[in-house]
Amino acid sequence: MQLGIVGKPNVGKSTFFNAATKAHAEVANYPFTTIEANRGVMYIRKPCPCQDTHITCTPRNSRCINGIRFVPIEAIDVAGLVPDAHKGKGLGNKFLDDLRQAHALIHIVDASGSTDAEGNPCDVGTHDPLIDIAFLEKEINYWLFGIIRKSWEIIARKCELEGKKIEKMLAEQLTGLGIKEEHITAAIRKNNLETTKPAQWRDEEIFKLTDVLRAISKPIIIAFNKCDKAPDNLMAKRNELTKYIIIPTSAESELALSNAAEKGIIAYTPGSNDFSLLKKEETTEKQLKALEYIRTHVLAKYGSTGVQRCIDEAVRMLDLIVVYPVEDEHHLTDKEGRVLPDAHLIPRGSTAKDLAYKVHTDLGDHFIRGIDARTHRIIGSDHPLKDGDIISIIADT
């Protein structure tokens, strides 16, 4: 699974990416700072089973902080998008190509209205952030439409002459974009299109199909970034966006807090609504002032910096669950004695055998049975897993 960090230039995409991954993408106040896509690992929050099993875990592929398990998910921060990107303007072609495998998008929007449509700095409050939301979706739609339209006559004619399903043919064409046959079926159904005569579909109908496909296959979370600097009238605009998940965000504040925590100045857990000062005597007046600003204008006002919430909401929107594979179902350990070592994100509805393949191909190929470590019941290959399950896999290896 992969989350794409998107938006026009100079809105804080790389700052968001750095804050969420602790990577070090270049950050500057001019368009197209990001040219090559930055890749990293973000983490979603889930209650760790160590809480209800009353044991001390020793995570390997994730982190446990005060009983909260931070589970990894891949992220990509791509070049900024400008109007007419689908025509190649700016770095549009590269931007869109980098998004091919993203399963969900976090759209970073400058809520302060201090960057124009091209990503150039302007006075605070002079650019409407709602314009940016509309144009990004438009650009992705036109990009998808161009890909579908390029081979449409051939595909549609083949479906009618050979009796092949248009859903299957389109899925084969769009497989590199992470679009599945079920996505196409749902989009066709929503638009009430006649599947036996796709050659008669007009461009307007294909474009509407594209819009639904984009919404289904690449759902979007809106991060209203720079919320602490945004005028009240612009922040209020988020109430107009009823079909979106809108999260007030201050990526700059999250990065400052995570850096301070890394240096031992404060105790802070990503997603929290406050922090504790640990070294007041070693903290400069400037640092104290900056921390108090974040506490007052971000944490107290919005409940968090919004960065962690964006990640958690994106994963919730994708309907992913977290499961914990172990070798010893009694002690909840792997073969090296680590307790609850790994946490895996998988789609809801995944089976015990799906988990086996996630852990290792050989385990999937030679799967015999699973054991639910919480109930100690034997489960079969087609047993659907639940969020928070701890599973031991028995294989003939």
In short:
The chain is of the alpha/beta class and 397 residues long. It has helices at residues 13-21, 50-53, 92-98, 129-150, 152-162, 166-174, 181-190, 203-217, 232-235, 251-262, 285-302, 307-317, 352-359, 361-365, and strands at residues 2-6, 38-47, 63-65, 68-77, 104-110, 220-225, 245-248, 266-267, 276-277, 320-326, 344-347, 367-372, 377-379, 390-395.
Structure write-up:
This protein has 397 residues and is α/β, with parallel strands linked by helices. It has helices spanning 13-21, 50-53, 92-98, 129-150, 152-162, 166-174, 181-190, 203-217, 232-235, 251-262, 285-302, 307-317, 352-359, 361-365, and strands at 2-6, 38-47, 63-65, 68-77, 104-110, 220-225, 245-248, 266-267, 276-277, 320-326, 344-347, 367-372, 377-379, 390-395. The chain has 3 domains: 2-37 and 78-141 and 219-255 and 306-314, P-loop containing nucleotide triphosphate hydrolases (Rossmann fold, 3-Layer(aba) Sandwich), CATH 3.40.50.300; 151-213, Helicase, Ruva Protein, domain 3, CATH 1.10.8; 324-395, Ubiquitin-like (UB roll), CATH 3.10.20.30. The protein is built from 14 helices and 14 strands. The strands form 3 sheets. Strands 1, 2, 3, 4, 5, 6 and 7 form a 7-stranded mixed β-sheet that branches. Strands 11-10-14-12-13 form a 5-stranded mixed β-sheet. α4 crosses α8. The longest helix has 22 residues, at 129-150. The radius of gyration is 23 Å and the shape is flat. It starts with a strand and ends with a strand.
